Amino acid sequence: MDKTINQKAWFLVLPVLLLVAFSAVIPLMTVVNYSVQDTFGNNQFFWAGLEWFDEMLHSDRMWNALGRQVMFSAIILAIEIPLGIFIALNMPKSGFWSSLCLVLMSLPLLIPWNVVGTIWQIFGRVDIGLLGHTLDALGIPYNYTQNTVAAWITIVVMDVWHWTSLVALLAFAGLKSIPDAYYQAAKIDQASRWAIFRYIELPKMAGVLMIAILLRFMDSFMIYTEPFVVTGGGPGNATTLLSIDLVKMALGQFDLGPAAAFSIMYYLVILLVSWVFFTVMTNLDKKGS
Amino acid sequence: MAKITLDNLAHSYLAKPSSEDDFALKELNHVWGDGEAYALLGSSGCGKSTLLNIISGLLHPSQGRILFDDIDVTQATTSARNIAQVFQFPVVYDTMTVRDNLAFPLKNRGAEPAYIARRVQEIGAMIGMEAELDKRARGLTADAKQKISLGRGMVREDVNALLFDEPLTVIDPHMKWELRTQLKSLHHEFGHTMIYVTHDQTEALTFADKVVVMYDGRVVQIGTPQELFERPAHTFVGYFIGSPGMNVIPASVSGSQAQVHGTAVPLSQNFGTLAGKVELGVRPEFVTLTEGEGLPVTIRRVEDVGRHKIVRAQLFGKDLNIVAAEGQEISPDMTRVTFMPDHVNVYVDDWRSEGKAA
């Protein structure tokens, strides 16, 4: 087949090219630019090579923040995924109550992130917060501004409150797509409740669960606003997650070089983990067939 | 293996059915004989699947009782009833191998591993999937999956009944024939009570000893294929079974003679005087085209289907089908039809009327 040659067609791609350039490529390249240069002010920059990367790779501060970040993501995934599935399994399947559940569960998802932070910041305060005051009155030591464990529990519970609905909604959608005949066949085969979950519901939900895990991993790994509003990274550095540390470094200390190197590595870690996860899951899927 | 009795059974999907129309399954009394093979035939939405699901306990009836060998099981669970059922669309456990799929119902009932292994091998051979036993079920084709579903239905030997809900819909024609034969031989071998739901008359007539025809939530006739053909109890049976279906002609009847638009049609029996909607039912096979006598028809077209010809005609503005022998000449002069009196059935309000010997 003959192709029509018309170089003017490139102009059709131009708007998108410009948009992507300004929204992604140029900002990203600025960061790359900072990461390989040093400055002593006066807008004068010197080539620094991979010095900042080297420094960051040997920085305890970054490794500690990464450790806290991995722990945070692992904890919230370990809670939100099973809890979301559990909620989806126990939700009414249809009718008024089902719709009501869906609406109620969507509510936390609609609240702006800094508002979520503020809600929990106030909720947990020992002086005026309902939760903090009640716990204090019951004699349970709870003060998220001073106690590391309390601070961690607060931000984890907050994230679970904010995002479990997402997992539940996705899992519910997966469950709804299972035809009745599967449950009927399971009854005929005298399958136990566990077997129904293990051999019918879980395989049918696998696709949406993979999306849920991926979304929750990426989101939690990049989380900033909510914990920052609640604890500001404290007490000490106890809840200083990667992005909080990054902002401190870049905007607090104005260490642009190290911060740029840091954020590039941060970005690569997320990309790498997501890619590995996705590849492993799709391969498992293929092996199944 | 059991005799299954339906006693005053009816079902409505509504919580408070107010009229008969609200019932998906209208009141029904019937005994499914132990070890017999039945076909449940009817158009889509006539209540076949509802009836099947009530028998297997997936659905609890709004009224009436179900008895297995005279024991009331109306409230018993599906597993307590020990029934096997195969559904229209394949249900397989995706993550398991074919072998595990077949073994699943036996494992769940705590059978001996050695017995399970032997039985799974037998069933694997029966459905022609011995080579694929260790493959995962997920990647298989729709008909392979349906064969697994069938296999899982047949793997238990001690079931009270085997129910099939249009199981061969997704299978290709060649395999359909083979699987149906397998099911028949299974029936001969083990003598399970079998109920086979279908809307395909060929399937029903070849599979079953007795065919149960349902229409609009009601069982309209139970009989052998021959009875259904010769003496359809309801105009629906006449229309549904046969290809093409029975001709239904509005008429008035008195004694042993019917009048169709003023033309007399002889009947073989005496019906007295009939009131209500009276119709004659004549199968196309028993309508003869003639040149001189009978009812006037206009021939629309002639279809040659190989073994015979189907003549599509009109009688007083209504369609009439005639089956003519393959060798018969259809000439333009043939503008009239006669019916064989022995094969004219008389229907009052859609139900067959039994006459007295004339």
UniProtKB/TrEMBL annotation, chain A:
Keyword Transmembrane recorded: yes
Topological category with respect to the lipid bilayer: Multi-pass membrane protein
ABC transmembrane type-1 domain location: 66-277
Localization per Swiss-Prot or TrEMBL: Cell membrane
InterPro entries: MetI-like, MetI-like_sf, Sugar_ABC_transporter
Transmembrane segments: 12-36, 70-89, 101-123, 149-175, 196-218, 264-284
Assigned keywords, A-Z: Membrane, Transmembrane, Transmembrane helix, Transport
GO cellular component terms, A-Z: plasma membrane
One GO process term, biological-process aspect: transmembrane transport
Top-rank taxon, per record: Bacteria
Keyword Heme: no
Family: Belongs to the binding-protein-dependent transport system permease family.
Name of the protein: sn-glycerol-3-phosphate transport system permease protein UgpA
Taxonomic source organism: Jannaschia donghaensis
Lineage: Bacteria, Pseudomonadati, Pseudomonadota, Alphaproteobacteria, Rhodobacterales
Gene: ugpA_2
TrEMBL record, chain B:
TM annotation in the entry: none
Domain ABC transporter: 4-241
Keyword Transferase: no
InterPro entries: AAA+_ATPase (IPR003593), ABC_transporter-like_ATP-bd (IPR003439), ABC_transpr_FbpC (IPR015853), ABC_transpr_MalK/UgpC-like (IPR047641), Mo/tungstate-bd_C_term_dom (IPR008995), NA-bd_OB-fold (IPR012340), OB_MalK-like (IPR040582), P-loop_NTPase (IPR027417)
GO CC annotation terms, alphabetical: ATP-binding cassette (ABC) transporter complex, substrate-binding subunit-containing
SUPFAM superfamilies found in the cross-reference section: MOP-like, P-loop containing nucleoside triphosphate hydrolases
SMART domains xrefs: AAA
Broadest EC class assigned to this enzyme: hydrolase
E.C. code: 3.6.3.20
A Pfam family this chain is assigned to: ABC_tran
Similarity comment text for this entry: Belongs to the ABC transporter superfamily.
Name of the molecule in the record: sn-glycerol-3-phosphate import ATP-binding protein UgpC
Taxonomic lineage: Bacteria, Pseudomonadati, Pseudomonadota, Alphaproteobacteria, Rhodobacterales
